[in-house]
TrEMBL record:
Lon N-terminal domain: residues covered: 12-203
Swiss-Prot/TrEMBL induction comment: By heat shock.
A biological process from GO: proteolysis
Listed GO MF terms: peptidase activity
Active site: S678, K721
Subcellular location: Cytoplasm
The gene coding this protein: lon-1
Domain Lon proteolytic: 591-772
Domain of life according to the entry: Bacteria
Main location as per UniProt: cytoplasm
PROSITE patterns xrefs: LON_N, LON_PROTEOLYTIC, LON_SER
Protein's name in the database: Lon protease
Record carries keyword Coiled coil: no
Amino acid sequence: MIERPQLLPPTLPVYPLREQVLFPNMVFPLFVGAEGMPVIEEAMRNDHMVAVAACLSKEDPCRYEDLGRICTAARISKVFRFPDGGGKAVLEGVSRIRLVRPTQQVPFFVSVIEPLVEKDGRGLVAEALVQSVNALLKIALAYGRPLPGDVLKMIDRLEDAGRLADMVGVYLNLQLRDQQRLLEMLDPIERLKEVYMHLTDEVQKLQVRGNIQSEVARRLGKSQKEYLLREQMKEIQEELGDEDPRTAELNEMRKRIQRGGMPENVRKVADKELARLERINPASPEYTVARTYLEYLCNVPWNRGTEDSLNIGRAEQVLDEDHYNLKEVKERILEYLAVRSLKTTTKGPILCFVGPPGVGKTSLGKSIARAMGRKFIRISLGGMKDEAEIRGHRRTYIGALPGRIIQEICRVEANNPVFMLDEIDKIGQDFRGDPASALLEVLDPEQNNNFADHYLDVPFDLSRVMFITTANLIDPIPHALRDRMEIIHLAGYSDEEKKQIAFRYLIPKQVEENGLAKSPLKFEDAAVLKVVRDYTREAGVRTLERKIAAICRKVARQITQGQPARSLISSAEVEELLGPRKFFSDIAGEEDRIGVVTGLAWTEAGGDIIFVEAASMTGKKDLILTGSLGEVMQESARAALSFVRAQAEQFGLASDFLENRDLHLHVPSGAIPKDGPSAGITLATAIISLMTGRPARRDVAMTGELTLSGRILPIGGVKEKVLAARRAGVKTVLLPLRNRDNLKDLDENSRGAMQILFVESMAEVVEHTLLPARDSQARGRFRDGELPQCGVQP
């Protein structure tokens, strides 16, 4: 009887298979990557049929010439798709076919096929071979050769020589080319003879293994069982000419430990863990845990690092290319490189960049890494609550892993990267631990040379790592952690600095990203300054970059609609493209009012101006505070009121000026929380302005803390506050006298035409801020016959 070929399409998509050959009547689960799914999808559209051919070459990708010409037509019964784009297909071998010629090779193979007809597989010779193969299978099973029970029952029922040869050939663990040779044999009897020869060889090897076991057992005895097992594996590998996969894995692990460059104490731990791994059954869960631990020990770059680029001139050039100004930061990096060139064992510094968003803290870390020729790592600490994220989990926990510090260092394969810990001021804390405390060991130069990750449980030297942390505010950082870092403040940018940044970095970047590189867009200086002053109010340049990007997008849209391309953006066109201005900064043109004083504040977004308003009404000497004021600012208000009452005579007020009256202090934008120790003189000036009836100059802004004795204490964030005052159109800024040295951080361009005055008493503040009273309505609040003793006559 001759088997007739099944009806098949003239062409089929071809799926290359490297590990195994698919035989007819065989059910085969095929795991397909995302790159192979188009073949399966084409087969599903083609009567669920696909040609599965063996790829006989190790080159990647597989070529059509490398495919076995005789292969198997298979039907796809089921397809399961995975989220990563891949999937699993269940194939059923149908019949042998021949690949005639390709009709398509990209993106996958499609070939003209020719069905093959097998010869008759029955007769006396076939029956004898079937019986012999069944007998050999039973002998192999007796020697411990594994074979699924359902497969054995199926083989017992098979009488067809061809199907029996195909089924037994699958379970013989033959090489790929030997499997392909079986597939190409169209004579079932010849194919079964080939299987019989391979099976005979397998049985002989099993018999030799049994003899080896007996001989080794006789020679070594029961007391040396561990040595017996190892000798058995060696003898079996020599006889079979093959290496056991587990033994190969252990040998490879041993080689990795030897060339891993581990310190002596770590090497001892690794050798001990490897010896333990050899004794564990591979089926035990502990085997995977021990193997994963050893792999991490081998992956840690104990003595592998990048070589620092100590060319100071090149490093300075790189920093200048990437960032404008930031002199203090650049000088600190160049100092570190200079020291490294003189002494190679210098510990890495622990820097903390503190400044408002958008001033370039994170991108500065990348530039430092590029200037030094080091790898760059960045992790965000914002919202991190679990201490194990830093130090890792103990190996006793299921799914334990090293902390992010060790993981990232393993990923870059260098023990001296530039490691940026972003948003350190936003780190969390809950019942799972305190990550900020866990960072103490990481960021302490005296301790981090023996950093102990809970998972590795061996010390690792972090002293060569250059740690950089970033924060918007320094106050939320715990004092113990802050003490271990070198604080470098990054203030906001002035209008001129923003203009330079826009022309040097932002405009070229956005022109490129928005497809305008072929017709470059240029901006006038006035246009950029208009965007800075009328459409942004920030310390950094993020909003400025977004506005420039918006202009580029609108120009790109006009080009695609066939309108004439703009080549130059003027200040008039800015308003046309971005709409009406968003911010009005000229407060000097507004009316000077009684009881309304302009103050300066510093927030995590940079400097800003605030208005303190004071009002008085009939009451019982109560002090009312509104505007979402924090505890510190409320105490400043009480202290300011107590100072004014104590010094009422100095400011020409009656001692009982609050008799039968309430005082209300309000800071507008009441939905925004406000706090800080620098509003004392602003609150006191508002009270004095109200009670004396003298308007406060709107174009004078002030900042400073006031004590009950009248001292004006220095404050922080001077540069940010001065820049905010300039953005708002303030003409005069009053600062505490002890902040005079802070003006070194401000160049002439940052100050502009503003006048900066230093004060050390409230009398000076009143003199520079309050105007004469406009009418005589305020005289009732003065002492009889007296005028304010502040140097300005009403």
